[in-house]
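Can anyone check this?
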Amino acid sequence: MAATQQQQYTAANNLADTRTLLRTGIHYEQLVTQAGPFQPGQSCTTIKLNNAGILTGLRIVVQADCTVTSPVTASPYAPYNLLSNITLRDFAGISRINLPGHQLYSILCARYG
């Protein structure tokens, strides 16, 4: 078998195996409770995820209280601009997501409708 054919065969098998694993794998949810309150402009919060199994999804729930002391107009990006930057690195340290909250929301809307 030629080298290119071998690579195509390997890539096709890898894709099929990945689909099977994602369809039949055990789903696991890790509840992460981050203590607060956080101050406006806090630079960074790191949440360590368990590095067991294959991560197939990540759900982020943010609860924020705010007190409005003067008349304001909400940003067109609200409330997704509460998160100024979301960075997701895999266990090898490779950055997979690095976006502001409103851009991540827009991408997910386009992807899932």
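Reply from J.R.: I decoded it. The two ends are 42 Å apart (CA to CA).
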